[in-house]
Amino acid sequence: MAKLLQTLTPLLSLLLLATATTARSQATSFIYDFYGQKPTDLLYQGDAHFPSDSTFLRLTNTDSSGNPLSHRAGRAVHSNPIHLYQAGAHADFETTLKFTISHTGTASVPGDGLTFFIQPVGTPLGFTGASFGIFNPAGLNPAVFAVEFDIYPNAGVDPSYRHVGIDIGSNVSKNTTDVGGALLGQEVTARINYVQATKLISVQVSAGSESFEVSYVQDLSTFLPQMVEVGLSGSTGGAIAVFDVVSWPNFHVFSSPYVKFGFEALKIRTQQSIASPFTPSRIAPVFLLFQQRCHAFHQPAAAVRHEQLLLLLLYISRAAVARLLQPRLFTASAAAARITMQNYSRHSSAVPLREVEVGISASTGGAVAIHDLIS
């Protein structure tokens, strides 16, 4: 009888050194509603103020009749600097704001817009119109992140529709979604979420019976400093509107340790018993699965999860062997390994997972093989 075991291939080199870098977790949160005593830990810049006997924050001035004025800007900034991230830790944040944009007076077209922004501490008030009180006259500020709720399509800057946009260092949005007239004349709720692990910025907007979403992938730590300030701004240009913040019910930033992954050699030997039929297509691939889930704190029962799957697949270095294996997972490439990353969002009420485990797995089905981890 032939030897029971036969080596198929000296298989591959691949992966895994998991080096954990720890840092003390920290959280920063605040809530602003505008009933009763007005907040004393907001900085009011430009036009931002509370009208007499109001329960809302107005970002741009009006005349004595309540009609909006042209070329105005105002900001409300949380007065305490936010430690957005630190060495060895990443920061996820989320915020919720509720506002109304109303159009009165003689102007035929409403404009310009309202923003949530993050910027370096002490950044001065920007310009009016399409600069939203946060950008310079050219619409630039390289160290600003903003989500804009833009009701006027400025030529050369904006798409041809009213939109919600994600701004990185410029008022030319990286991504937008068309909101039609939904931002005007009714209360709007916006939820903004950032997950450092996936670099995913996501915005969900609800206005009446309508809802909208826009997202963009950007590592905010590449251009924002560790210490930042956060705020809300509004502006008008030649087109005008009234921008009122009903409440800022949630801002939360959570900084926690993360795990870094590097590469070292992992030698694996796959063997089969010649006494059974060899059907490589039915042998489960050996892989490492790294999974991290983050969730929105504001509504745990229906939280939006942003889940990252980092799948490190083993690639056979010999074309002849590679052809035998599942073409869906293996190729004839001589590359030692490739990384397939999939980012997606899903709705779930499951308990959020903030700790992960890593490992190597293998399996057999009706067809059998022996998978040995050498080192």
TrEMBL record:
Name of protein: Legume lectin domain-containing protein
Signal sequence extent: 1-25
Domain Legume lectin, first and last residues per copy: 28-248
Protein source organism: Salvia splendens
CDD domains reported for this sequence: lectin_legume_LecRK_Arcelin_ConA
Coiled coil: none
Protein family (similarity comment): Belongs to the leguminous lectin family.
PANTHER family the UniProt entry points to: CONCANAVALIN A-LIKE LECTIN FAMILY PROTEIN (PTHR32401), LEGUME LECTIN DOMAIN-CONTAINING PROTEIN (PTHR32401:SF47)
Record keywords: Lectin, Signal
Organismal lineage: Eukaryota, Viridiplantae, Streptophyta, Embryophyta, Tracheophyta
GO molecular function, one term: carbohydrate binding
